[in-house]
Amino acid sequence: MGLNLSALAVRERAVTLFFIMLLVAAGAFAFLKLGRAEDPNFTIKTLTVSAAWPGATAREMQDLVAEPLEKRLQELTWYDRVETTTHPGYAI
């Protein structure tokens, strides 16, 4: 004759109810103690360089200002990418 867990649970209702309440309380406690931030905080470092040369064309800004700046910026540590926009007299 084996252990009939279902019959035991029906016969001992108070013990079964106690274990159910104990499991619910333990689950609620564990849920409330969960960590809030799954990912650590990190900083995204961004560098913006702008240059103005009144009277220069967009081609002059590209050739004489933006390209030399890009070459110098490539020497920086942790340099990933560059986006350059040139307008007449202004480069970002």
Explain what you see.
The chain is mainly α. The protein has a domain at 51-91. 47% of the residues lie in helices and 7% in strands. The protein is built from three helices and three strands. It has helices spanning 5-11, 13-32, 58-73, and strands at 51-52, 86-87, 90-91. It has a three-stranded antiparallel sheet with strand order 1-3-2, with helices on one face. A hairpin with a 2-residue loop joins strand 2 and strand 3 (90-91). It is rod-shaped, with a radius of gyration of 34 Å. The N and C termini lie far apart (84 Å). The model has no long low-confidence stretch (mean pLDDT 87).
Give the C-alpha Rg: 34 Å
Shape: rod-shaped
Main sheet makeup: 3 strands, antiparallel
Low-confidence stretches: none
Strand content: 5-15%
Per DSSP E runs of 2 or more residues, the count of β-strands stands at 3
Helix-strand pattern, N to C?
A: HHEHEE
Structural class: mainly alpha
In DSSP terms (H or I, runs of 4 or more residues), the helix count works out at 3
Whole-number mean pLDDT:
87
- Please bin the fraction of helical residues: 40-55%
Q: Give the neighbour order of strands across the main sheet.
A: 1-3-2
How far apart are the termini? 84 Å
